[in-house]
Each structure stands twice: as C-alpha cells, then as structure tokens.
Amino acid sequence: MAVGNRTLELTKIAAAALAEKLGSEIVAIDLSEQLVLNQVFLLVTGNNEPQLQALSEEVQKKLAQAGEKPVRKEGSGSWVLLDYTDLVVHIQSTELRNYYMLDRLWNDCPKIDLGLEKSVR
Q: What Gene3D superfamilies does this protein map onto (predicted)?
C-alpha cells in the first residue's frame, strides 16, 4: 500500500514549514509497507528548545491552514511529536536524534522526495 496523496501533500507542507524555520536534516520515511498505524515519519533536527518549539508551532500552523489538526501532541524540550494519524512529525534535538536514530531504525524503508534540496543547507 503506497502513501496516500493527501498524506504526501501534508508531508510536503510540513517539510516546507520545517525548512522555513531552519530545521535541519529533514527526512520523510515511507512506512506504508511496514506499519498499520502510520504511513510517514517526518524527522527534523532543531538546535535548541526554542527552535524546536518554533518548528512545532509552524508545522501546526501550516497544517491547520490545510485543514488538519494533530490528534495527539507529546513531548516538550528535546523531542516533540505531532501525530496527524498517517503522518507523524518527530522534532528532535541533535542529541536525541543521534541517540534514538529513527533514520537508521527505519533504514530499510524508502525515503520520500520532499523537493527541499535547494532550500535546505
């Protein structure tokens, strides 16, 4: 089962919001063949707690403009999780991103092209 068009659209909106707030290492992982509950994990790294909060707020703002609200928000400080059912956004500090290595945990899953190459440093 492939990632749905709406989920892909929301993933790209969220990724653009993260890039706009200078999030780094933005990666979208296609979990549609692996998990029943989620289709995409969108991962981003922030430099400090205020930036992580700004990243979270920007994603929520942009997805609200697209008609979506998170069904669940968890965490604060070094890891914020925004659950949009088929899309889960993980906003992590560098330390937690390196410790939990979600990128490597789901390394066998395909990455989604977000079209951000020109705007991400």
A: Beta Polymerase, domain 2
